[in-house]
Design goal:
The chain has helices at about 5-15, 65-75, 85-100, 115-120, 140-145, 165-175, 225-240, 245-255, 260-280, 295-305, 320-330, 350-360, 365-375, 385-399, and strands at about 80-85, 105-110, 130-135, 150-155, 180-185, 200-205, 220-225, 285, 310-315, 335, 345-350, 375-380. It is of the alpha/beta class and about 400 residues long. The radius of gyration is 21 Å and the shape is globular. The structure holds pyridoxal-5'-phosphate.
């Protein structure tokens, strides 16, 4: 597919396989096959696998996953992509492929809780040290680098408080220190930020969120250079085994067909909701990168072309009781986890729980998180409903 096409066109066409009379005009021919006939006698080990070998077994590669991977690589401006069964499968495969006993990982001190727990609980059991650092502060990243730091992993915007990391600045610091940079761009999507163009080595997505977009499929992906992605396929996919089901690959491809217009509407609705929440008497603060009220709005304007649909707000008091009230009273918005779905979602994340169970921050880092989040954040994923209906629903439920 021609490189010159714009992202909105690539999202629809980059994964196409056939353009012959009679070919289906669908996302991709969905192929629920686990294995394929093979023309050659080939080795049975993943280590014998030639690049661009014909499809053989779906844990190696699959035509539908292949269309999805080509589309994601085109959208991110990367040479290749590898898809996984979930965002966590993608992150864990990348960590285990790039890190070995004796290595050190630097990680955003605010990120998806599962990633923070993986880094702090599982990696050390395999001899890999992990440090959580405030990646919003490039000087802190530089100070935390060690001679054995092999990977810096940042999430921007970060779940759940939408804190940003300057990708270009942190990429330069990581590379100067001999480390690579991976960026979880799940919340930004390829229509918001293209981390590879800013110097990152890898982009990670939970396809479960905006990319599949309808809340009906788990999935994950890593995008990067061809040689590194071939190694990741061998070590992280074939051996660790978290392959994406063909049907979920197809659902992600179908989601990609509407990602550009959905992101425009998610952003427009988030803008309206942010303005409403900022004026509400029960709201202490609201965080959305697209607002001049966001403490890193200048960075957001430099680094994001779409500010996405996720916002977080905290209450002046009584957050726990307010969460219960919202769960009971919301009629249009669903009180549910996750983000990036067509329908609006709201969920409360108490600060004490998150700091104790997942981030385990102390001292200045803990104080900084509490400053952003207060007692807890209401994470609001603005869907595609009419903005006036969303505001009316929140207004009646907040009281
Ligand atoms: C930013 C981010 N990265 C990764 C993940 C993990 O993705 P999955 O749920 O698809 O495993 C999540 C899930 O919430 C997330 O929000």
């Amino acid at each position: 597919m021609a490189e010159k096409l714009a992202p909105a066109t690539l999202a629809l066409h980059a994964g196409e396989t056939e353009r012959r009379p009679g070919a289906p005009v669908t996302a991709s021919p969905q192929l629920a096959a686990s294995f394929f006939t093979h023309p050659d006698a080939i080795g049975f080990s993943a280590n014998d696998l030639a690049e661009n070998a014909p499809h053989f077994y779906t844990r190696w590669s699959n035509p539908t996953a292949d269309s999805l991977e080509r589309t994601l690589a085109a959208l991110e401006g990367g040479e290749a992509a590898v898809s996984f069964a979930s965002g966590m499968a993608a992150v864990s495969a990348l960590f285990l492929d790039r890190l070995a006993a004796g290595d050190h990982l630097l990680l955003s001190d605010v990120c998806y809780a599962g990633v923070a727990e993986l880094a702090q609980d599982i990696l050390p059991r395999h001899g890999i040290a992990a440090t959580l650092v405030d990646t919003a502060d490039p000087a802190a990243v530089e100070a935390a680098l060690r001679p054995n730091t092999r990977l810096v992993h940042v999430e921007t915007p970060a779940n759940p408080i939408l804190k940003l990391t300057d990708i270009a600045a942190v990429a330069a610091i990581a590379h100067a220190g001999g480390a690579e940079l991976s960026v979880d761009s799940t919340i930004a999507t390829p229509f918001g930020t293209r981390p590879l163009a800013l110097g990152a080595d890898y982009v990670v997505h939970s396809l479960t969120k905006y990319i599949s977009g309808h809340g009906d499929a788990l999935g994950g992906a890593v995008i990067g250079g061809a040689a590194r992605m071939a190694a990741l396929r061998r070590q992280g996919l074939i051996h660790l085994g978290g392959a994406l089901a063909p049907f979920n690959a197809w659902l992600s491809l179908r989601g990609l067909e509407t990602l550009a217009p959905r992101m425009a509407l998610h952003e427009a609705n988030a803008r309206r909701l942010e303005a409403f929440l900022a004026e509400h008497p029960k709201v202490r603060s609201v965080l959305w990168p697209g607002s001049p009220r966001h403490p890193q709005h200048a960075l957001a304007r430099r680094q994001m072309r779409n500010f996405s649909g996720l916002l977080a707000f905290s209450a002046r008091s009584g957050s726990g009781a307010l969460a219960a009230r919202l769960a009971e009273r919301l009629r249009v918005i669903s009180y549910a986890v996750s983000l990036g779905k067509t329908k609006s979602l709201l969920f409360y994340i108490p600060t004490d729980d998150l700091l104790r169970a997942s981030f385990r921050l102390r001292g200045a880092q803990e104080a900084a998180y509490r400053d952003w989040a207060g007692e807890g954040v209401f994470r609001f994923s603005a869907g595609l409903e009419d903005a006036d209906d969303l505001i009316a629903d929140l207004a009646q439920a907040l009281g």
